[in-house]
Amino acid sequence: MKLAVCLGNVPDTTTKVKFSNNNTAFDKTGVQWIINPWDELALTRAIELKEDSGNPVDTVTVITVGLTDAEPTIRKALAIGADNAIRINAEPTDAYVVAAQLAEQLKKNDFDIILCGIESSDYNGFAVGGMLAEFLDYLSVSAVSHFTITGNDLEITRDIDGGKEIVQVEAPLVAIVQKGITKEPRIPAMRGIMMARKKPLEVVEPIDVEVMTEFSGFEPPQSKPPCKMIDAENVKELVELLQNEAKVL
Amino acid sequence: MAVLVYAENWDGKFKKLTFELISYASKIAEMLNTSTSVVSIGKVEESELNKLGNYGALKVLKVEDDQFKNLDNQVYTNIIFQAAQKEEADVILLAHNNTGKALAPRLSVKLKAALGSSLIALPSSLEPFTVYKKVFSGKAYANIILKSDKKVLTLAQNSFKLIETDIQASIESFAPEIDETEIKTKVKDTQKQTGKIILTDAEIVVSGGRGMRTGDNWGPLEELAAALGGALACSRPVSDEGWRPHEEHTGQTGKIIAPNLYIAVGISGAIQHLAGVSSSKYIVAINTDPDAPIFEAADYGILGDAIKVLPELVNAVKEMKSQQ
Questions:
Q1: Which of B203, B213, B221 is CA-nearest to residue B309?
Q2: Could you tell me if B226 lies within 8 Å of chain A, comparing CB atoms?
Q3: What is the 3-state secondary structure (H, E, C) of A95-123?
Q4: Which of B191, B272, B319 minimises the CB distance to A13?
């Protein structure tokens, strides 16, 4: 089986978010980039599946849409254990553009399982995985928190509102994963970092995709009144405030 | 032209989020000078379907065929797609829950429609069609122009008020053209929480962090949640330690929730945690550290040890409830 993992290159989650061009663009100055946290979980699970010799997984390919500033992220993915990488040389403008670019490259290679994180921590679109599946006309399973392969059977646990479902499907498939899929994202070891330098990273040019969305303006969160402190000896007051002032009880 | 909503049901019942979505869709329909149609998949009683009219739906297409009882993302996308064509819908709306997140992106591609996801307000303008959402996990808000003729929108939970109407919805059966062989997702087992309030639906959430010291100390938190009729949640270290199941983890990589009241007990409030809870209407923080960032996000705070404060809080809540 050939696995692919789609990676997003996102600002570190502790980044102080600033905007430029009259608040219409994210200001990338001084930003540290990381693998989108959900994609990192997907990658870790893909590597685990490959390492478990009982599984028929041959290769794990990582693919991203990004300019040269995305290369450290994709090298990190190779260091974590991916076999090879593809970078589509385009600005990841929105989810639709990203999914269309990914689909174009992925369909050339007959991947059996494509893993995506459920969300990206920058624009929080929850969109690329589902869009990609539709572009490829693949089955998709979303909110995946457990994934095992037995022969050709894929057993997947997905979250539903108020519970879980265990579903059985066959490849080809886009699995859209969330927390729970693996215990912790893997950190590259020194040996992995050395090996990553020699692993193939293919850079391909993008196709033309119509851009259907545009940011017209970003705003900072509204400032809120300061926290009202209540004496620990007088918790009754808190209950009264919640009941009469906030009116939430 | 119409506005089309996919109304999911849970064992034949709709939830508050369904009615929020219909209310929201009907407001958009009003702005566009059109009406709201709904597609429902699965067995739902007529009396339940009628409730959709109470929030503005003029027409309900019901797809009751038993072969569609389990969610298959491709098949459901196709059903909604066909309903959208039948209704000549330009705006298609889904809830931003597990199902909506799974279907909306697929629909967006199938309809060649721009996607506006997790919206928290009505479009600020129709020309251009401008939607509003949180980005960077709550660190900013964005106005986004959707430039395509068709649009797919998902509405964040607990972000739009219910608007009641006295519309009597017309209900008709709808038989989408789908071949049995297209259904490829086989559900082997369903595990539903019983008797518990679902975290993402809960109006009150009681959440514990590392300040609880060990998983064995959760008793008073459970008691508080029960007394308030709320759900339990936890911070990431707590689920990583295995003190609580990962389903309860709220935060950037866990569940994103927007209850009316969020009580953070022994949670310092790292930026990743706040990303999951900052949409709460009110936040209460109980923490020993006066410099904990949770106090900056909170509306009410108690500086103190959770283990000591909790039992008193449980008593105070119980006393208040007994007087209600």
A1: B221
A2: no
A3: HHHHHHHHHHHHCCCCCCEEEEECCCCCC
A4: B272
Q: Alpha-carbon dihedral of residues A210, A120, B280, B145, nearest 10 degrees?
A: -10
Angle between the N-to-C axes of helices A95-106 and B98-110, in degrees from 0 to 180, rounded to the nearest 10? 70
Q: Which residues contact B248 (CB under 8 A, 6 or more apart)?
A: B199, B232, B233, B234, B238, B239, B254, B255
Q: Which helix (H) or strand (E) holds B81?
A: helix B73-87
Return the closest-CA partner of residue B58 out of B93, B77, B34.
Answer: B34
Give the C-alpha distances (Å, rounded to integers) separating A101 from A85, A209, A230, A232, B152: 15, 8, 54, 56, 20
The Cα angle at residue A144 between residues B222 and B95, in degrees rounded to 5: 75
- Is residue B177's pLDDT more than 90? yes
The arithmetic mean of pLDDT across residues B207-219, rounded, is: 97
Binary contact (B135, A123; C-beta < 8 A): yes
From chain B, pick out residues whose CB is under 8 angstroms from the CB of A141: 73, 185
What digits encode the pLDDT tens for the residues A49-76? Answer: 999 988 899 999 999 999 999 999 999 9
pLDDT digits (tens, 9 = 90+) for B280-291: 999 999 999 999
The answer to whether B278 faces chain A, any CB pair under 8 Å, is yes
Interface residue B145 vs chain A (CB under 8 A): yes
* Rounded (10°) angle between helices B219-228 and B306-323: 20
Q: Is the pLDDT of residue B174 over 90?
A: yes
Q: What number is the average pLDDT over the span B2-27?
A: 97
Entry field: residues in chain A:
249
Of A210, A235, A115, which Cα lies nearest the Cα of B320? A235
Question: Six-digit token pair at B200?
Answer: 């993402």
Q: Does residue A135 register a pLDDT over 80?
A: yes
d(CA B309, CA B320): 17
Which among A176, A183, A4, A1 has a CA at the least distance from the CA of A77? A4
Q: Is the pLDDT of residue B195 over 80?
A: no
pLDDT above 90 for A13? no
Alpha-helical (H) ranges within B125-283 are 219-228, 236-240, 271-277
A239-A244-A247 Cα angle (round to 5): 90
Residue A165 CA, chain-centre distance (Å), reads: 22
Question: Which pLDDT value is given to residue A53?
Answer: 82
Q: At which residue do the structure tokens 């995985």 appear?
A: A129
pLDDT in tens, B120-151: 999 999 999 999 999 998 899 999 999 999 99
